[in-house]
Amino acid sequence: MFGLFKRDPKKKLQQDYERKLQAAMEASRNGDMRANATLTEEADALLAEIERLKQEGK
To answer: Considering the entire predicted model, what is its pTM?
Structure first.
């Protein structure tokens, strides 16, 4: 019954992942390739965590 109010950690990670990709794209457009690389690396780490959670859910 109380599982209804439980938050989904994958949903929050997915939102964070999308925000990082958006920020990386904006940094790239502004010519800041170092920030782009850093943000892309952080986004990749979030994606790996999302995939790990999906595998555990199976």
So the answer is: 0.82
